[in-house]
Amino acid sequence: MDKNARLDEIFAYILNNTNVENDMHNLQEAHDFNEIHNSIEEKCNTFSNDDQKSSTFISENSNNKRPSNGDTSIGTPTTKYSNTINDKGQNSGMERLTGISEFSDPATNINDFYHQVFSNFSHLQHLADRDTKNISQGNDFFQPLEDTAQVNQNQLVNSSSIMQSKLFEENILKELLPSSPQATDNTKNNSNYHNHLTEIAIESLKRQRNQSKLIHLDSVPDFQDSKDVKIWLQKIFYPLGIEIAIERSDKSKITYKCKALKKKDEVYQNNHVHTPVNEAKDSGEMGKKKRVKSQYNTCPFRIRASYKIKRKKWEVVILNNFHSHQLKFNPDSLNYKQFKDTLREMGDIETIKKFDELEYKAQKNLPVDVDTIPCECGLTEEVQSFGVVIPSSFNCQSKPQNSSVKKFAQKKSNSENPKLSKEVLTKNLPISKVKKQSSKSVSTIHSNALENLTRDSSIEKESNNSNAFEEWENENQVLLSSGHGTVESSIMGLNSLQANRSPEIKASSMFDFNMDINEVDFTDLFLKPSKKMDGHVAKTSSENLVEESISKNNDITKDLNDLKLFDLGSNGHYM
Amino acid sequence: MDKNARLDEIFAYILNNTNVENDMHNLQEAHDFNEIHNSIEEKCNTFSNDDQKSSTFISENSNNKRPSNGDTSIGTPTTKYSNTINDKGQNSGMERLTGISEFSDPATNINDFYHQVFSNFSHLQHLADRDTKNISQGNDFFQPLEDTAQVNQNQLVNSSSIMQSKLFEENILKELLPSSPQATDNTKNNSNYHNHLTEIAIESLKRQRNQSKLIHLDSVPDFQDSKDVKIWLQKIFYPLGIEIAIERSDKSKITYKCKALKKKDEVYQNNHVHTPVNEAKDSGEMGKKKRVKSQYNTCPFRIRASYKIKRKKWEVVILNNFHSHQLKFNPDSLNYKQFKDTLREMGDIETIKKFDELEYKAQKNLPVDVDTIPCECGLTEEVQSFGVVIPSSFNCQSKPQNSSVKKFAQKKSNSENPKLSKEVLTKNLPISKVKKQSSKSVSTIHSNALENLTRDSSIEKESNNSNAFEEWENENQVLLSSGHGTVESSIMGLNSLQANRSPEIKASSMFDFNMDINEVDFTDLFLKPSKKMDGHVAKTSSENLVEESISKNNDITKDLNDLKLFDLGSNGHYM
DNA sequence: TAATGGGTGCACT
DNA sequence: AAGTGCACCCATT
Ligand SMILES: [Zn+2]
Ligand SMILES: [Zn+2]
Q1: pLDDT for A363-398, tens place per residue?
Q2: Chain B: nearest CA to A248, how far in angstroms?
Q3: Is residue A176 part of a domain?
Q4: A142 φ, ψ to 5°?
């Protein structure tokens, strides 16, 4: 449609004006492998000594199977259903997750693995090539392409080589740990890995609030059990003041939502509750009725996790990254207590410490970086933390209350739009030159380094709330000072490995093949003003496009209209 | 209020013009105890020999506890949750159900029990007195009163001494089997008992269709496990063409509903699906949202089972005994297959046979006594089996679709209405004289004999559909001819035992103490025209009141207005 | 677990 | 009609 045509234009422009190779070279020069090896090994040894449970998990698991990379779920019933489900799940659908590891050596642990990997570079290279060849792994055809594409996407937007090193390290790790037969299980070290990815995700989400479109979470660890997905998400969303609950789950698909507020939580409900009017016009086909829900259970926020057989990985997508209520970290919540118990059973001391600090802050009424998220109705409402007013005309059209959840990308619109733009994006656009981008400042660099969100259109926005960000940075600093810094800094060096992959693969796909072009929109470009720049819109590069569209100026709709990226009317998310 | 005042009037009149004692005497003369004893014993021996499974269940159960009277749930997972739940339920709330049986003799079985009871009349008398004194059983204070009250209620309405014998027998059995320490467990014989009550309930429900008010199911067996409630209800409702599903469950409360229709079942959906209009005005307090429901899941039919601590029994109430869809017995349903598997595991051959016959009929497209139940909207629709047209103006006011289910009696209105009428009913009205009532015909007598429904106002309506009833009778005959007749006929004699109870207790309470007076209404008196009588309304006796209000005349609302029992407008069932 | 959306059984809180 | 957390489903493409 019009929208896609515009996107094609934009992407074409971006691709012709960027160059990724310079960054690659920089990364290679920045680190050497001995450094990486030593620091990681040290980190692993540190953790494997301070808790007995990890070895317990090893022995229990290694008898039957090698969990690819997920937390083990033994003895960690997340919910009351978990035992039941484990019995079934592992006999039916979840077998596939563990079946690939039948050949692993039960005696090896994560430390041995690290030794193997980092003391022998050629071995690592072999592992990387394994995916590249994609012969032995039947379904992996697109995996390396996608990984590279995601890297490039982030690179385009965040323009920081240090960030790139982070991302590369993640991609390498993700490839090595979950799928390779040499990988072994070690709860402790898996926790470290998971926690690392967790913090990356948190950082990204914090800077992507109030998005009305899909946000793909990259750097999702591999999970042994589908319940571990929730634990991981809890690690991410509890610190953001969001308590998640499963809305629907499957062997291969889980949908999370905000846990329903109780009546006593009424304080946190946004004031301007919509009076339900004309509920009938909810859906085109009538006859649908709604399950009974309380007025406190209207939040449109959703997380969708689905297991991708091709990648053998869980894909996590955030939908409607805004809330109809205030966000609050509540350490007294029963679910939170259970969550912490689970952490204890898993022996994830790192995360426990982190949440202890969070609890401390919450007790002291210190800010926990939780700000008010406006209702998706788009009616003018202050974002209290920043004093920013959301433009009433943009975020969404005023809509009936019962359609408070944005519809997922629809099949109909998919078929409407032929794959033209997708083809252009994925095949017809060689990315031989990606413009090297300059970093802004140290703190910004750090922020960008943690960037891991893949926007559907691979266009990233810089949402630089110094308030929230500095807070987050401080918090991170605390964590680092309590002994968690080494992993990040050392693993970071891994990105240079990525640079050794064949350039063809890097260039052949800038975009996630699983992405739906129809999910693309630029709505959020204008949702979150920042103090960085004021200015007119320029379409010269993704960098400029993103940064300049972020403006403290409240008259954002004007910029929007200038852009004319798509028809607002025909692309309403609400029906 | 006005309604209750009218009720008081009516009840007072009824009570003053009825006499229960004559019936009592008749019953006493009809049978002698040797007859009872011999036939029951014979019956029991017959069944305990033809299946090995029953003994298996005996041994398994008797080691730990004596199930009061419910089906054992060992190895009978009704749903996928059942195993999980059994583990929990029996450790927590459901302990209450089994705790009372700790002192039972594990060696005795149901046959021994029958021997004890019927070979020694004074012993039986003792058992009856135990409840009467209600000293040893802390919570049983009202139980004998209630039992007597229910008997009287039915007596008033059904006017058949043979029916009374049935009822008495049931009450006696219920007292003996579940609560007395001498009761023993025997799956086979418990099945017999359950099945007997099942058929009673089926019979009653068949004649009480299209009721817009609550229907109390009497003669509910005692259940060992809350899951057994569903099994029992399935025995009742599958033959009626209703597949039930749990809507919500608790330790002490379970709500069942019609299993949602699938899309392929669209044929059975009633045609005039309401177009949802103005869904907003659903409830007085707004802000409620409905869980997503398909258009095929709108049936208002509900069954509410709640465990009464006082009686140590499950109370079963049917709400909205009508459906928004056609009823059809579907032997291919997955749930039905599971149900039958459960029956097999329980060794309930009797029920299995019955359902085999049902399946046979269904295969042959023979009528299975399933008729179309009109939508509760009250719009004119044919009841296909009888060619009866439901008056459009009575059943309910036209209403928005999403309030398709009648609201339960509300607590608020409870407190509004002081207990005046209840006091009148339960204390101030001696029932020294209950009018002896004449029976109509043999077939009718049989029908009445199976009557076990307690209407909320203790006013029974004679709904005499000869079509449905004869069909049912024939079906019953088939069942009896396949070896199920003896229990009923022999146990019937037990009613004379009931007559030996102290008259004071019988007289002191005509009404169920657990009943909510606010649940009372007479709506259904006029819902089901019958061919029995045509005529004007008379208020001279309960008998006349009931019978004369049943009219084939479609102009029922006229009679209703003459009666002026309550304000139609202020007592709408739908909001 | 093809991908992806949604209904609903049913017990927990 | 407690509301809802969660999972077993089904439907469509
Ligand atoms: Zn929310
Ligand atoms: Zn129904």
Answers
A1: 888 665 554 444 434 332 322 322 222 222 223 333
A2: 13
A3: no
A4: -90, -5
